[in-house]
Amino acid sequence: MGWSAEDVTLAELARRVFALESDNAKAYPAFYSDPRYAREQLEAITIALGDLPGGSKWVFFTTPKGSLAAPGAWTKDGREDGTARTPLQALAQGDFELTKPTALAYAER
Question: Residue of 10, 18, 28, 76 with fewest CB within 10 Å of its CB?
C-alpha cells in the first residue's frame, strides 16, 4: 500500500483500517491494497463499523448479505430473485451507497 508503519498505526487508531490478531501479531486484510476496491470506500465502511472487534469487521466484509443482493430475474410469483453478495462484492461492483447503511445497521446490532 506504500504506507509506513506510522501510517498504518494512525489509520488503525482512526478506525480507518482494522487488524486481526493472533499470537500477539497483527494481520491487516489484503483487500485494503486490492485495486478492485476504492480504499476510501473501504475506510469509510470500516469507520461505519465503529468499535466492533477486528474479527466482527472481517465477518461483515466477507459474509453474503441479502440486503446487498444483486438484482436478479423475476420469479413466477412476481418477486425479484437476487443473489446475496458480500460487502466486498458489492463494493467491487460500485454499490458503496448500498453498502454503507448496511454497515451502520450491522454495527448497531
Answer: 76
